[in-house]
Amino acid sequence: MTDATSRRATRARHDALVELLRDGVDGVEALAGRVGVSSSTVRRDLARLQREGRIARTYGGALVRDTFTERSFGESARIHQEAKAAIAEAALPLVPEGGTVFLDAGTTCLALARRLVGRGPLTVVTRGLEAALLLVRSDDVRVVVLGGEVRPLSHGVVGALSSLSLERLAFDVAFLGADAVDPERGIGEPTLEEIHVKEVAASRASSVVVLADSSKLAPATLPAWLPLEPTWTLVTGPDAGPASAAGVARQRLRESLVAVVVAD
Questions:
Q1: Tens digits of per-residue pLDDT, 49-105?
Q2: 3-class secondary structure for the chain?
Q3: Domain end point (choices 64, 87, 105)
Q4: pLDDT for residue 71
Q5: Which of residues 31, 47, 64 is at a domain's end?
Q6: Residues spanned by the domain of 27
């Protein structure tokens, strides 16, 4: 068999493994029997597919990473409302009285903004347009909006002006949203610009809290990632059983020393 033929066979086998995983076949022995290779070969294949970001390994199996499609702000606001409200309530004790916090864009961070109205004195620096408009109604909350380009789907501000502003500020806590949270890759976003803003904000904060409902803990394919630090905290929703993809991700995050708070 030539090298080119061997590479084609490997690619075909990898594609077959991904399809089998989509169909719910995830045991190594079962996969090996279906594609006609040894278990050790399947383990190597799964490890390679994991490195390429096509699958996520779980205890005793694997899951296919779904292709990510970014939702509009309005669409995101209509889903997982109860979980986001619970996450915001669980995150509220992490807001320092009289402190300065960074509040990311996104609907989960907006849920926290709703809880901050009337809870000053507090300074909130945000890149979220809706959060700024909501919090400015509160007399005891000082609101600072970052400059930059507004992304049409997330309504979040990004770009050089955002980064420049953040580099001149300091925060007691940075509350970050995420389109995905992966135990190995960290926080996932559809653009490098959004990841960069989050990275700069996190670097200027004494502590970092990631707010993400359990749907964000399912495997996803995104182009830009920010690694999670062991000192960070994840506040997530209650709707993930231990055997689900989100439940497995929560356990793996705990094992990596990230503090995980599950909202009631």
A1: 777 666 766 555 565 555 555 667 777 777 788 999 999 999 999 999 999 999 999
A2: CCHHHHHHHHHHHHHHHHHHHHCCCCCHHHHHHHHCCCHHHHHHHHHHHHHCCCEEEECCEEEECEECCCCCHHHHHCCCHHHHHHHHHHHHHHCCCCCEEEECCCHHHHHHHHHHCCCCCEEEEECEHHHHHHHCCCCCEEEEECCCEECCCCCEEECHHHHHHHCCCCEEEEEECCCEEECCCEEEECCHHHHHHHHHHHHCEEEEEEECCHHHHCCEECCEEECCCCCCEEEECCCCCCCCHHHHHHHHHHHCCCEEEECC
A3: 64
A4: 67
A5: 64
A6: 3-64
